[in-house]
Amino acid sequence: MHLYIRIAVPGECQRWAPVALWLGATVIAVFLALLAIDSAYVDGEYIPLGNDAFYHARRMLDTAIGERGFYQFDERLHVPDGSWIPWPWAYDFLMGHAARLAVWVRPATDPLGFLSYVPVVWIAVNAALFMAAAGQAGLSLAHRAIAMLAFALSPLVQLLHSVGRIDHHFVEFTFVLLTSWLGLRWFAAAQDRASAVGLGLALGLAPGFHNGLFILQIPVLLCIGLLWLRGEKLPRHNLHALAMTLIATTAIIVLPSEPFRQGMFEFGLLSWFHLYVAACTSIVLVFIGWRSYDKKSLLTLSSLCLALSIPLVAQLTRGAAFLSGDISTMRDLGEAMSPYKLFFETYGPLNTVGYYSWLLLVAPILLVYYLWRVSRRSQPGNLFFAIMAVFGLALLLTQFRFYYFGLFALIVGSLLVVQRLAERWRWRRGFVAVGLLGCLLIAYQPPLRGHLFRINTLASVRIYEGARPLFLALAERCEQDPGLIFADQDDGNFLLFHTRCSVISNNFILTQEDERKLAQLGAMLRLSPEALRQYRPEVKYVLLRSRDTRIERDGTMEIDSSLPLAKALLLDSEPPDGFELIQTVWGVGEDGEFEPYAKAYAVH
C-alpha cells in the first residue's frame, strides 16, 4: 500500500506567489546594482558610469538646472560645425525634467545623485515585466522562480542598472520586455483589442528612446505574416487597431524631434525615416487584415513591400553597418564584438562567461531549436515566442552590447525547453525544479565568483580614472576662459561633462561627417605645435595622452617621436612657445619607469 500526501497551497498564497518572486528578485538585483557605488561616487560627488553616460548626464543636467536647457543640436560638439545628437529626445528630456522636479520638491537634492539612482529603482519595472512575460510564455510558477533568480543574479542586469549607469540601455531592455509580454498576450488572445492597442503603443513609443528600436516591429510583423501564410487569419479590427495605434503613436513621438521637423530622413536620427517605417508596417498590417492569403494576394503584397522598401535601402545599408560593427571606430570596441570573439580572442573564456554565465554556450543551440519551432505549425503565442527568441538570440550573438535583446530568450527559452521535456516524459516536478536550480548555480559560478562582486574602476572607464585630474583642472580653466579643446574623441564626452569648453569630436561616429571630424584629429597629431596654432587658431587647450600617440616597435609600445606634436608636448621637458603646461598625470610604462600618462596645456 502506498501513501500519497498532497499539500494544498491556499488560493491566497497562489495569488501572492508571483508578487513575492518579483519582490525577492528586485531586492537581490538592487543589492547587486548598488555595489557599483564606489565607481559612481568620488570626492563627495556622483559621476556617471560609462563613456556615453557622461554625455547623457550633461544633457540631463542642462535640462534640469543648466542655462542651455534641453537641446537636440550641440554647437559645442564637432566644432566649428556643431552636431546633431544621435539619441532621440524622449529619454534625456524625461530624465532631465524628473531631476528638475526632484530639485523643485527638495532644493537640497543633488540632481546627478537623483539621476544616478533611477536605473536602480527601474529594476522593479523590468523585473515585473520579465515576470509577466515569463508567465505569459507559459512557464510554471516553480520555473518562474528559477527564471527570476537567473534575472536577479545576471551581471548583464547589473550592468544595465548599476548606480550611475544612466545610459539609455536599461530603458531599451524595458521595451524589449514590453514587446515580448504584450505580443505574447495578444497572440494568445487575438480578440483582445486592448492588447493590440498596448502593443501598438509600445512599438510606437520605442524609437523615442532609441532610434534603433524600430526593429522591434520586425518580429511582430513576421509572426503576423507567417500566420497569414498559414491561413490563420487574425481579427481584422484588431490588426487595424494595432496599425492605427502604431502610426499615431510614432507620429506623436517624432513631432518633438528637430530632425523630423527639418524634413530629415536618417536612420541615425529620430526623423521621417521612423515615421515612414511605421507607415510601412501599418500598411502591411491593413493589407493582411483586408485580404486572405492566396497566390494573387501574396504577389500583390510582395510587390507592395518591394515598392515600400525602395526609399529605405540607403539608410538600411548604414543601419546594417551599425548592427555589424562595420564602422571605423567600432571595430576594436569590446562592446561591438560578438561574445564568441570575446570568448576566444579578447576577454578569454572565464572573463566572457563572467558576464553571460555558462548559458552562453547554450545560446546557439537555442537559436537553432527556436528556428525549427518557427518552421512548425503551432499556437500563435508559441510562434511569437519562437520568433522573438530567434530575433533576440541572433542579436545577442552578434555583438556584446545587444545582450538585452536576447537575455529574456536565453533564460526563459532554456527553461521552456526543459519544461516541455518534463511534461512530455512526465518527470517529477520537484526533481526537475531542484535539478534546474542546481544547473543554474553551476552555470552562474563565473559571475558569482567574479563580475557580480568585482570592484570596478572609477566611472567604470579606465581611461577616465587615469586622466580625471586633468578634466578637473581644465574645468577650472574653461570656467574662466571657455574655448576649444584638442583631445582624442574618447575624451570628448568627459570634457563636455566637466567643462564649459567645446571639442572637435567625441565617440558619436555614425555618419560620414562624424568620420571626417575623426580624421581631422588624426591629421592634427601630425602637425608641429606651431602648425597646430596656425591650422586651428581657436584651439585654447590641448589634452594629449601617451596612448593616443603610441606605435609598436620591437614588440613594445612607445610614443611615436616622429609625430611632432607628441614629441613636443609629451617627450620634451620644456613646453614649446605659446603652450603653457597646466598639469601632468604620470604613469608606469612598460619598462617599469615613470612616464607622462597625459598632459594638459593652455595655448596662448
3D architecture notes:
- The longest helix has 23 residues, at 11-33.
- The radius of gyration is 26 Å and the shape is globular.
- The strands form four sheets. It has a five-stranded mixed beta sheet with strand order 6-5-7-11-10, with helices on both faces. It has a two-stranded antiparallel sheet with strand order 1-2. The protein has a two-stranded antiparallel sheet with strand order 3-4.
- Helix 1 (11-33) packs across helix 8, helix 7 (141-153) runs parallel beside helix 22 and helix 10 (193-205) runs parallel beside helix 12.
- The model is unreliable at 1-9 (pLDDT under 50).
- It has two domains: 121-453, no CATH class; 462-603, no CATH class.
- It is α+β, with helices and mostly antiparallel strands.
- It is built from 28 helices and eleven strands.
**Helix-residue proportion:** 55-70%
- Give average pLDDT, whole number: 90
Give the structural class: alpha+beta
Strand order, main sheet: write it out: 6-5-7-11-10
What is the number of helical segments per DSSP (H or I, 4+ residues)?
A: 28
Break the fold down into its secondary structure elements and pairings.
Elements: H1 11-33, H2 37-40, E1 41-42, E2 45-46, H3 51-64, E3 73-74, E4 83-84, H4 89-105, H5 111-121, H6 123-136, H7 141-153, H8 155-161, H9 169-188, H10 193-205, H11 217-229, H12 236-254, H13 258-261, H14 272-290, H15 295-309, H16 313-324, H17 339-346, H18 349-356, H19 363-375, H20 380-398, H21 403-425, H22 429-443, H23 445-449, H24 462-480, E5 484-486, H25 492-498, E6 502-503, H26 512-525, H27 529-535, E7 539-545, E8 550-553, E9 556-559, H28 564-571, E10 579-588, E11 594-603
Parallel strand pairs: 5-6, 5-7
Antiparallel strand pairs: 1-2, 3-4, 7-11, 8-9, 10-11
